[in-house]
Design a protein that fits this description.
- With 222 residues, this protein is of the alpha+beta class.
- It folds into 2 domains: 2-87 and 185-207, no CATH class; 91-180, Orthogonal Bundle (DNA Binding (I), subunit A), CATH 1.10.30.
- Helix content is 28%, strand content 16%.
- The protein has 6 helices and 9 strands.
- The chain has helices at residues 2-6, 25-33, 50-55, 95-101, 142-155, 187-207; strands at 9-13, 19-24, 37-40, 47-48, 64-66, 71-73, 77-80, 119-122, 137-140.
- Strands 2-1-7-3-4 form a 5-stranded mixed β-sheet.
- Helix 2 (25-33) crosses helix 6.
- The longest helix is centred in the C-terminal third of the chain and has 21 residues, at 187-207.
- The protein starts with a helix and ends in a 15-residue tail after the last helix.
Length: 222
């Protein structure tokens, strides 16, 4: 039951009261303890620091975290004190944006024919099930695009095995294809949420009434 409460969703607002993401209760309480956020009471929109939130008596039916000496109400909304970042928005998939991602450069020969002549090529042709997506489309000059279309038509229906990328010869410029807003995580960073939650829970327990009030320093993990 305690794990379920700690993993409940808490809405995070920036300092302009705009919703930016959702976090867990344990992370929200750690932000409150570290004085990087305040709890927003959803009924009256009052904000509370850690000290004020700990002293606030939870309603009888409100979810809370229990210790041997106290009950701590679960925060539903927290507001960051210093951060004014805006919510991340997905970049619209379009010919123009694919060309911008690839710096208006042909991904096969490196030519730059100009924004008005650059075309979009499907790495896996649509005739073979390829879709129009960030990971399957690249910028191509008209010459390379026409050559690859011709090769695809010649091999179509002949049962010839093509390369892994679809048509014969994938992009020569070997960089990963992804949305401009996408980020790549290393295997180490994938472990960080688990390590962070364990450390956060330790901070939360130490901050409960009757516990030492020293704030431990958190190891770097982004």
């Amino acid at each position: 039951m305690a794990a379920e409460v700690l993993n409940r969703a808490t809405l995070v607002l920036n300092r302009n009261w705009q919703a930016i993401h959702v976090t867990t209760v344990v992370r929200a309480l750690v932000m409150l303890w570290n004085e990087t956020a305040q709890v927003v009471e959803p009924d009256e929109y009052r904000t509370y620091s850690w000290e004020g939130w700990v002293e606030l008596e939870p309603p009888p039916d409100a979810p809370c975290i229990r210790s041997a000496r106290a009950r701590l109400r679960v925060p539903e909304v927290v507001c960051l004190i210093h951060d004014d970042q805006l919510p991340l928005t997905a970049v619209t998939f379009s010919r123009r944006n694919v060309a911008k991602r690839d710096h208006h450069t042909c991904q096969y020969c490196g030519a730059q024919p100009g924004w008005d002549r650059i075309t979009i090529d499907h790495v896996v042709p649509r005739s073979q099930g390829g879709v129009s997506s960030w990971t399957n489309c690249v910028a191509a000059c008209p010459v390379c695009n026409a050559r690859r279309i011709a090769k695809s038509e010649r091999t179509k229906g002949k049962g010839q095995k093509t390369e892994e990328n679809g048509r014969e010869g994938g992009p020569a410029i070997g960089r990963p294809l992804r949305s401009p807003a996408a980020s790549v995580q290393t295997s180490f960073s994938a472990l960080c949420p688990l390590l962070s939650t364990i450390f956060d829970f330790a901070i939360l327990l130490s901050a409960m009434p009757g516990r030492p009030t020293a704030r431990p320093s958190k190891p770097g993990c982004t």
